[in-house]
Amino acid sequence: MARYTGPKVRISRRLNVNIYENEKGTKALDRRPFPPGHHGRTRRRNAGSEYLAQLQEKQKAKYIYGVLERQFRKTYDEANRLAGPTGENLLRLLEQRLDNVVYRAGWASTRPQARQFVSHGLVLVNGKRVNIPSFTAKKGMKISLSPKARNMIVIQHNIDVLDRSVVGWLETGDGGKEVVVRDLPQREHIDVPVREQLIVELYSK
Q: Which site among 30, 44, 76, 114 is 20 to 30 Å from 161 CA-CA?
């Protein structure tokens, strides 16, 4: 399955946000709070056109959720067909991705790691193995770790050490090794640093 495998820290510095939400990205932004490249130190962050700002917001969302352009556009088109603000619908659909649910549950330290867990068949949906990271977790579904995953040191370490608070639209159970989608994610539950309205403006042109 296609995914971005390029330099992650450079992307974070270019977009001025720790898109992979890990310690390495935070340190890189603290140490070099300017864009990469020969003229990075002298380049103004907010300089540029309205189009550039819109494009950067789209790139943030794509890299944060690990979605390439074709799938991102497909998700946007689906969000546009739903009732309500298109931008919020877009973020809601991205949040409902199975790999993101695994991340939100605290089983993975990053979304790329969560994607790997799903792809390797370590996650069950309503008791059945699902290995598609883009699978949409809907209201009422129970997401749990497979028997093999429950005994994996890395997952138990993530649960114990990360101690990540589960978002309001998920309900945890079984000692933190399963979650139920109790509701659809609302905008206040989505803490990603993305201005979704700029993405809508970009695609509306």
A: 30
Confidence (pLDDT) at 41: 55
CATH code for the domain in which residue 66 is found: 1.10.1050.10
Rounded CA-CA distance 68/73 in Å is 9
Integer Cα distance of 75 and 89 in angstroms: 9
State pLDDT tens for residues 100-113.
999 999 999 999 99
This prediction has a pTM of: 0.83
Alpha helices in the chain (DSSP H): 8-15, 23-31, 50-65, 69-81, 86-95, 98-104, 111-119, 147-150, 153-157, 196-203
33-68 tens-digit pLDDT: 555 554 445 555 555 689 999 999 999 999 999 999
Task: Tell whether 72 and 129 lie within a shared domain.
Answer: no
Same domain, 119 and 170: yes
Report long-range pairs for 177-180 (Cβ below 8 Å, ≥24 apart): 177/107, 177/144, 177/145, 177/150, 178/142, 178/143, 178/144, 178/145, 179/101, 179/104, 179/105, 179/142, 179/143, 179/144, 180/140, 180/141, 180/142, 180/143
Identify the domain containing residue 85 by its residue range: 8-94
